Amino acid sequence: MVTMERDTETVHEAYAFVCLHCGHGWEEEYEIRHITDLAGRHRAEYFTHGRRVPSPLTRADCPACDRGPIRILRPGRVNTTRTYLP
Predict the structure, then answer these.
(1) What are the extents of the domains in the chain?
(2) Could you give the CA distance from residue 24 to residue 65 in angstroms, rounded to a whole number?
(3) For labelling, which of 4, 17, 45, 51 has a CA lying 20 to 30 Å from the CA of 30?
(4) CB-CB contact of 70 with 20 (8 Å)
């Protein structure tokens, strides 16, 4: 089934992440496309480096240790938070 889009709004957001297990921190910028289809349903699609990716708000694993939990911070906070982790 093909769903036609009625409206798309694109915003750019950055997030900082830190793993509370291993202390690994990273930041990522996302292009977020807020889409409303012809039936009025809303969805958001996340892109980084030109690839569609899952929402960073649902990411459960650290890319360094494949564990977690992950804390999401405002951009630019990774280095500040590292001083409090082992």
Answers:
(1) 5-82
(2) 8
(3) 4
(4) yes
Between CA 78 and CA 84 the distance in angstroms is 11
- pLDDT digit string, tens, across residues 25-57: 899 999 999 998 888 889 999 999 999 998 988
Residue 38 makes CB contacts below 8 A (sequence gap 6+) with: 3, 4, 5, 6
Amino acid at position 74, single letter: R
Whether 28 contacts 59, CB under 8 Å: no
Sign of dihedral through CA atoms 75, 63, 47, 54? negative
Nearest to 73 by CA among 13, 16, 27, 12: 16
Q: How crowded is residue 8: how many other Cβ atoms within 10 Å of its Cβ?
A: 11
pTM of structure: 0.70
